[in-house]
Amino acid sequence: MIRLLHLSDLHFGTEDPGVVQALLQLEQQLRPDHCLLSGDITQRARRGQFAAAQAFVRRLGAPVMAVPGNHDLPLFNLAARLFNPYGNYRQAFGQDLEPVLDTPRLLVIGVNSTRPARHKDGQVSAAQVQRVSRRLQQAAPGQLRIVMLHHPVRAIEESDLSNLLIGRERAVPEWVDAGADLLLGGHIHLPYLVPLQGSQPERRGWAVQAGTGLSTRIRGAVPNSVNLIEYDAGVPRRCCLTRWDYLASQGFVEVERSELRLSDL
């Protein structure tokens, strides 16, 4: 059984200390094999905020794979945004903005959907779409195949349509056809699960959105939340997605569990 903890939008600089401790306790309780962090690690991409994020990551028991979000680029430091937009991110989380995690039963492909020229909107290029598709096509038969980026590819609220990834019309069906099981995202602080369809009727995938893991910048009445993904390469292929919400009196509690049927290999 592979166990993955999906975190997003931690927004260090606006983190709630009580939620930080509760999430560390949850991670110790769940003992995931990997933590997947889908961007907006900081609020304003400052060195001190990345240092706080680094300190948090070091306290996790599982290795962390991350991609940047739009808040991980400087907003007010225009010189840094123009000439070294990922400088502080790279110093904290490594040079590779699009890392790949490849194990016998897991393939996670990171995609950098941020653009320094854009304030918040995300985008994928044709080259990125092709790179991810080629890598998915090389996946081993028993691997759970995940694409992780910051910006969402599907919305459940009309107000979020403007936040969707630019280039998703091409990327989503091509990635699903190439074998993607899950597309992980964040950005809008709203957790949900939406089915995805490839161009072929037998191809299906799932868009998995995480809420804000630690920030006080919650969305209305939606609490801090994270996702647990569990996968066992049986026949038929399935994975389990569990959402954990933070409740002030109890810490993180399990609130929703979904059994996902994955496409046959």
Automatic annotation (TrEMBL):
Stored InterPro entries: Calcineurin-like_PHP (IPR004843), CNP_phosphodiesterase-III (IPR050884), Metallo-depent_PP-like (IPR029052)
Keyword entries, A-Z: Hydrolase, Iron, Metal-binding
Lineage: superkingdom: Bacteria
Calcineurin-like phosphoesterase domain location: 2-190
Keyword Ribosomal protein applies: no
Pfam families membership: Metallophos (PF00149)
Family statement drawn from the similarity comment of this UniProt entry: Belongs to the cyclic nucleotide phosphodiesterase class-III family.
PANTHER family: CYCLIC NUCLEOTIDE PHOSPHODIESTERASE CBUA0032-RELATED (PTHR42988:SF2), PHOSPHOHYDROLASE (PTHR42988)
Protein name according to UniProt: Metallophosphoesterase
Organism expressing this protein natively: Halopseudomonas formosensis
